[in-house]
Design goal:
Blueprint: H1 2-36, H2 54-64
């Protein structure tokens, strides 16, 4: 009977590992899906990028000396 009890312990361990692995996989996939979802506001709208203004041009000119 002692051998039968140890077999039951192993079965419980294997079941717990299988359930834990499945839960970890689900959490990983759902976390990646949330991270990949588009944000509500774009970080930079089109046309709001680099603009060369007078003070930027004067700075570039100062670097040539």
């Amino acid at each position: 009977m002692k051998k039968q009890a140890s077999d039951m312990g192993r079965r419980q361990l294997l079941k717990a590992l299988a359930v834990g692995s499945a839960a970890g996989a689900v959490a990983t996939v759902s976390g990646q899906a949330m991270a990949a979802s588009p944000s509500e506001e774009p970080v930079m709208a089109k046309g709001d990028g680099y603009q060369e203004t007078d003070h930027v041009r004067s700075y570039y000119e100062s670097l040539k000396d």
